[in-house]
Design goal:
InterPro entries: Homeodomain-like_sf, HTH-type_TetR-like_transc_reg, HTH_TetR, MftR_C. This is TetR family transcriptional regulator. This protein is an all-alpha fold. It has two domains: about 50 residues, Homeodomain-like (Arc Repressor Mutant, subunit A, Orthogonal Bundle); about 140 residues, Orthogonal Bundle (Tetracycline Repressor, domain 2), CATH 1.10.357.10. Helices cover about 65% and strands about 0% of the residues. The protein starts with 13 loop residues before the first helix and ends with a helix.
Length: about 210
């Protein structure tokens, strides 16, 4: 209740805050793809979600940073896969269900939109910085998951090096797939199958060094 005796607005739950962040991220992606990063404003992003620009800036320090929740989803999905990887089993086996299901490594409202966003990271410095930062943040999470799997300390050199290999391979695979797709009208089912195959191929290569 406020000082004047009126009931105040109840505070947002962490779950609702996460939902708002994701809604903002999706709106930003759509605008970046359709009109470019430079032409997109915080006000436009907010209007697309039904919030003010002030709310957008409360959640993100810049318009480019609005895409962070989409990239962060991939970190979570891959970390879960690494924890599920059982000793003696092929590495790609831990991801054979995650990747085709929704491919959260490059999660978005739809694959074509996210593919276009990753293509933008090639020429848009702000988005490129966010893309690379997401992988910087992923590496320690991957290292912890690999350390847990091996029963090693979290700061052990071996899982740290393995995580770096794994991280670089996934980024290279995502970029290889997206940047070589010239026509955005590619059949979605075909594009999904190609993305999954590329990711699994990258995991196979990494597994050779993680055996």
């Amino acid at each position: 209740m406020t000082a004047g005796g009126r009931m105040g607005r109840p505070p947002l739950t962490e779950e609702r805050k996460a939902e708002i962040r994701l809604e903002i991220a999706r709106a930003a992606v759509d605008l970046f793809v359709t009109q470019g990063v430079t032409a997109t404003t915080g006000e436009q992003i907010g209007q697309a979600v039904g919030v003010t620009a002030r709310t957008v800036w409360r959640y993100f320090p810049s318009k480019e940073a609005c895409v962070r929740p989409l990239f962060a989803a991939g970190i979570e999905a891959v970390t879960e896969g690494l924890r599920a990887w059982r000793p003696g089993r092929p590495l790609e086996e831990a991801f054979e269900h995650t990747l085709p299901a929704d491919s959260r490594l490059v999660r978005s409202p739809d694959r074509a939109t996210m593919g276009a966003l990753i293509r933008l990271t090639r020429d848009e410095p702000g988005l490129r910085a966010e893309w690379l930062q997401s992988y910087d943040e992923a590496e320690p999470a991957f290292a912890r998951a690999l350390a847990e799997r091996s029963g090693l300390p979290a700061d052990d050199l071996r899982p740290t090096i393995q995580a770096a290999m794994f991280n670089a391979a996934l980024r290279a695979a995502a970029e290889h797939h997206v940047w070589r797709v010239a026509d955005e009208t590619t059949d979605p089912a075909t594009a999904e199958a190609e993305l999954t195959a590329t990711m699994l191929a990258a995991l196979t290569v990494v597994a050779e060094g993680l055996a």
